[in-house]
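Q: What structure does this chain adopt?
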Amino acid sequence: MASSALALFSAIAAVEAGNLAVTWSDCGAKHATVTALEPSSIQTGSTETLTGTGTVDEDITSAHFSAKVSAAGVQLASCEGDATADIDCNLPLGAGTITVKAVNYPLAAGTVNIVTAVKTSAFIPASLAKVDVAIRATEQNGEDVICLDVHTEKQLSTEADIDCSKAACPSQCECSKTQCTDSINTCLADATCAAAQGCALACACSDQQCSLSCAAASGTPLALPVATCINSNCASSLEAEAGTLAITWSDCGAKHATVTNVEPTVIQTGATETLIGTGTVDEDVTSAQFTAKVSAAGVQLTSCEGDGTADIECKLPLGAGVITVKKLAFPIAAGTTNIAVAVKTSSFIPASLAKVDVAIRATEQNGEDVICLDVHTEKQSSSVMV
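A:
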């Protein structure tokens, strides 16, 4: 919503000609929620339009807008108005002008768009980089109708733009620029992914859980390939050859079945081994739909699904291995039943894939839960898990 206006402010926050990445968060107005701010990056040296979208729960007959722009905790500019006419905000040092376009009152309850024109200089002072914009608005009764925080900073365009001297682990950063060029550049081409790279650059050397957590928090699937590539090539990623993976499990409560055992409790890497899950079902199962999701540090690595009439294969990233749920012979009679899972692992498993969680679910012919099993593996001895 009016978000756009201030997003603008942030926009001016980069350095010389290039793109400004725009990120935002809704901070909780009483009568409205901001749902989108587009585009997520803007070009300096031009006039561009930001459109803020949101929902309001009442008709708005009038409003008062205010915006405060800060950098490094210092307020740089502010502007306000009722938006019955355009509201111009002149940025310092000739960086540009942000114009909240006039609003046609009343605004009916429901979805609302507010448009902001952003005119920026081709050369924006570096002192305005990493700008925070606090945008607020109250409606005719003095109650909050917009609460939006916007952040802008220079958008990196290629791995060459990354300053590794500012990274927590400069050597790992430099390695990633040569070993992971494609995945980094794909990430940097997306404003959301590019904005998340600051988190990854703050990770200590070989702290692979940190990089995966940054990818998980980024809000985009483009960050995971960067994290896994860095962990595999630049963060002491390969563990010793063949070792063992410890397996623990828990039944999470399906309606029609209970898992009673999973054997063995350890498997050897660099081989294909078979896990046997044993359980009891309280009805005949004539068909089923299986899903498996594999995650590490909260980041989903892979998923697979199928009906169990043929083998269901889940391929792990980075060549770490393949998990195969073996086909079943339907119908499965009520009582004790077994399900076999073949686990093929590489002798060299990336350390970034240690401590993996596998969520296995299945529904039967009536769509009701018949398997709910969580499996966890981690390095035992000198090896890492899949």
